[in-house]
Amino acid sequence: MRWKKKKPLIFGMDRVIWVLLQGRGGMKNQVINVNGMSCDHCVQTITKALTEINGVAGVQVDLVKKIVAVDFEENQTDLKTISNKITEVGFEVEEG
Ligand SMILES: [Cu+2]
Q: How high is the pLDDT of residue 23?
C-alpha cells in the first residue's frame, strides 16, 4: 500500500519569517523641510514626483511653512529615496 503524499498545511519556515517581517512595516508620516518652493507649480512638481515612488501613499505640501509631509509604507520605500527625489526635481531638502 502506498501512502499519498500530504500537502503541507503551512508555508515553509522562510515564508513564515518573510510574512512576519512584512508585517513589521507600516505607514509612516514624515515631515520634511524643503527650500525653494514658491508657487502651485512647485507643489504640483513635488507632489507628482513623490507619488510616483512605490510605497508613497500621500503627499501634502505647505508653501508657507516650507514643509512636505509624506505618508509612506516603511517596507516599500524610505526617507532617503524621498529626499533624493525632491532634490532631483530641483528643490533643497533641509537636513535635520
Ligand atoms: Cu513654483
A: 57
